Amino acid sequence: MIIVVDDPDDPRFAQFRLNERGLASRAEKRDDAGAGMFLAEGDLVVERALDAGCVPVAALVDADRVPEVAHRFEAPVYAGGTQIRKVISGLGMPQAIIALFERPGRPSVAELAARCRRLVVLEAVDNPANVGAIIRNAAGLGWDGLILDHTSADPLARRSLRVAMGTAFALPHARTMNLATELAQLDGFELYGMTPNPEARDLDTVVAGERVAALIGSERAGLTDELLALATPVRIPMAAGVDSLNAAAASAITCWALR
Fold first, then answer.
1. Which structural domains are found in the chain, ordered by start?
2. Nearest to residue 100, comparing CAs of 121, 78, 132?
3. Phi-psi region for residue 198, left (φ > 0), alpha (ψ -120 to 50) or beta?
4. Which residues form the tRNA/rRNA methyltransferase SpoU type domain (predicted)?
5. First to last CA, the chain
6. pLDDT one-digit tens code per residue, 232-246
């Protein structure tokens, strides 16, 4: 049932105003069992969250153009006009639907690796837009898992999901506070560490094996020495005067080359 509300201060809207920390605390984001909530924007992202089995909490929709996906909700669906949804969502041009979901559980690194052949590994990639773009690249190019250290941005953050267009639900991820230790224990994976170091091996000379993990680090500092020591250093050949690409662009090229 659609519940029309015309007061932006209605207490039922308070949940849609929560920031990232309000949706999920640091401890909740580290909980592999699933804790806290995430917010999905737009009918495509919301539909993909539902298709993936995510449990809805509530939705806010355009009263004049209720998206079809809203009728799938077994949770409260509130409707308001554009001005109300602008105030509530904080967006200049609010989506026809925004929805809150319970954060799902996720596998451990070992559990994820056991069922994957191609893994993207992120260290200190703290920009949610970059994480979202990397997820979309990896999912689109047929990779089947993502591992992040605890300093990388949340794949279920509002901006990550928006940039990834909901593909985060098709690319399972694991998070760890001990990335180097976990990677050292991976069985049967070739590890390739992306670096601008001119002494590294050119990416286009790599013949990828059956199981591959591509390691991508911070745009500022790159991968730590600890992670590079575990991997074969690999570089994308660049034109003179340019040392590297944006992490998201580099991930697309890497995922294509090592697919």
1. 2-102 (3.30.1330.30), 109-257 (3.40.1280.10)
2. 78
3. alpha
4. 119-255
5. 45
6. 999 999 998 898 899
